[in-house]
Amino acid sequence: MSTGSGRNIVLGKNSTVWQALCTDSRLASGFKAIGHSELDSFAFAPGDRVWVLSYARDLDANRAMFARLATETDIHVFYISTATANVDAVTDCYQYPRVKRACEQLSQSLLNAHIVTIGVVYRDPSELPGGTTMATSLDEIAAFMAAAVIAEESGGITLLFSAITRPFANALERSVHAGYGWLQARIGWPCLLRPVDIVLRALGWRWYGYLYLSNRLWLTTTS
Questions:
Q1: Cβ proximity of 12 and 53 under 8 Å
Q2: Are 141 and 132 in contact (CB under 8 A)?
Q3: Could you tell me if 60 and 21 are in contact, meaning their C-beta atoms sit under 8 angstroms apart?
Q4: Which candidate, 81, 59, 80, 66, places its Cα nearest to that of 36?
Q5: Do 141 and 102 touch, CB atoms closer than 8 A?
Q6: Which of 44, 31, 11, 15 lies closest to 144, judged by CA?
Q7: How much of the chain is helix, strand and coil, in % rounded to 5?
Q8: CB atoms < 10 A from the CB of 149, how many?
Q9: Which residues make beta-bridge pairs with 162?
Q10: Alpha-helical segments (H) within the chain
Q11: Which of 31, 58, 66, 163 has the fewest CB atoms found within 10 Å of its own CB?
Q12: 107-116 b/e with 16+ CB inside 10 Å = b?
């Protein structure tokens, strides 16, 4: 089902994802990108498809953004969320997944938005961390946005990611990865591992924290 006959508006022109997508030939000419500061003065039209990539750490700022969009008539909103929001089901100690999950709920309750859940964004799989990661290629996102055709016009959810397994750098990283998972599964508050996360980040091993927890939860629920 086509989702409206209007324009494609990206809200979040300075987001990392849009900056990586904006030069794609499928999107460069057919999409208008605006920043959060332009939202109040922008003139939407009935039938517009609004792709929300904008994100604020403060939930109230996100709520105000959705409330502003809710004043428009007959726009179709796609909220771009993250696969890591699933960790909110077991812990609220990570800010980013907690706020993104709340934004999913707000966008659906205020706008009947369609949630598009993406994983770690990559151009080439070699950019992904070792182990299994829920990930989405830039090509997949561009193709989805360019088609603007989904099973449900609004209120639904599209899981736009897949599990991609990459080799570890060496046997040490593989062992530390397994040990980290053992610890995380046994600690009631995963954020206690943040000092360890700092070390892992310094080593260039980017699978730690809520990403590790999210991947583990997805693998458990989808296996």
A1: yes
A2: no
A3: no
A4: 66
A5: no
A6: 31
A7: 45, 20, 35
A8: 10
A9: 135
A10: 16-21, 59-69, 95-111, 138-147, 171-186, 194-203, 209-222
A11: 58
A12: bbebbebbbb
Report which of 194, 190, 193, 197 is spatially closest to residue 129, judged by C-alpha positions. 197
Q: Which two tokens stand for residue 55?
A: 């994100």
* Tokens of residue 148, six digits: 């603007």
Per the listing, tokens 């502003």 go with 68
* Residue 188: C-alpha distances to residues 80, 121, 143 (Å): 29, 29, 40
To which residue do tokens 């750490």 refer? 57
- Render each residue's pLDDT in the chain as its tens digit; 223 residues: 344 458 999 999 999 999 999 999 999 888 999 998 999 999 999 999 999 999 999 999 999 999 999 999 999 999 999 999 999 999 999 999 999 999 999 999 999 999 999 999 999 999 999 999 999 999 999 999 998 755 445 568 999 999 999 999 999 999 999 999 999 999 989 999 999 999 999 999 999 999 999 999 999 986 5
Residue 95 in tokens: 């800010």
User: What are the backbone dihedrals phi and psi of residue 81, each rounded to the nearest 5 degrees, phi first?
Assistant: -110, -170
Euclidean distance between CA atoms 171 and 167, whole angstroms: 10
Cβ neighbours of residue 13 under 8 Å, at least 6 residues apart? 22, 33, 34, 35
